[in-house]
């Protein structure tokens, strides 16, 4: 295989692609609001087309032939473009989500010496409960959950406080400082993905499936969602284990990195059963205990009975009260109304949770499948049963999918999902928000079809090879 061109010897076609893509990101980041669905979907479709031009060749170059001694060359131009697109959005106000307002609110509370888990924003605005805190009415009006306690773990809270402290009087300034650790995490993930893929004998340019993905760029860097930091720490945990896992120090460092991922977003808790299955009960439980212990240590500065009660209450309310872009949940709800005339989920919700947990644990301990494939399936099952699936949730699936692309099988449904999930923004075309059931059917119908095709290819590939599957 020949080396890819340097930044100074690139074809005009590539420069044209870069300029066109940058213009599309600029329009979406700076000139398009959430109610403008026609413009949102039009520009996004163009970005998906642009993305497909660069990733399509990667599916034929996932893994070299056993006799191929030529090493892959990193496509520096495309990796530089991935970073440039993110930097381009550095000073944009998030247009598709108001979550940043809660981030800044929590950060200002911390700077004021107030535990963000202790008070509702509506209580603080009413006054009396925290006389030392002067709430910003402009910021308060931007909050999308003033009647709910915060659910963001301690590492997130630290980044919120840093952003609020570095720019105490400017919302845009605070947003920029929120975006900086996300941008740094994305650059770190780029490097880690390339190294992990190279070590597995795969094409390091497969990292571009994540790094150039429009959903990842727009939702994480653009709309300031900290799944980017979570993904970085999960990758760091894997990299540290592969580098030093044979030593106690390596295991400790890897477990601490995973704990930092959990203290950014709670989602990586799903990885612990896979770790136990992969390492065996003794080593796996030791790793999980270190991870859990360090995570608890980070929670201690916020710990009190109110924090536990309030956080659990908010999580419970989130799953019971919020409904957006769900799949199986909506299907069960519709069947319940048809058969019983009411939302049966209130009666069978506990049983669904038990069945989902058992299913996820069964997948986690299915050692005949590569660990990356198991994680992909677990996340898919989790999101399939969720009551709320915001577009940025799918970015974690895209990150895992990178490690499931081989010469034997290719799981492409997360990439498709990252495209069609954008249809969920149609709900914001009017106020109050109203979802379009036809678009939800199109979204999940297309993902299900691709999932079935991916599973068929995967099963066929497993039957064709007697040797053990490639592990990551």
UniProtKB/TrEMBL annotation:
It comes from the Bacteria. The chain crosses the membrane at residues 12-30, 37-56, 76-96, 224-241, 253-281, 287-305, 317-339, 345-365, 377-405, 411-428, 437-456. It holds the Pfam family MptA_B_family. Keywords: Membrane, Transmembrane, Transmembrane helix. The keyword Transcription does not apply. The keyword Transmembrane applies. This is DUF2029 domain-containing protein.
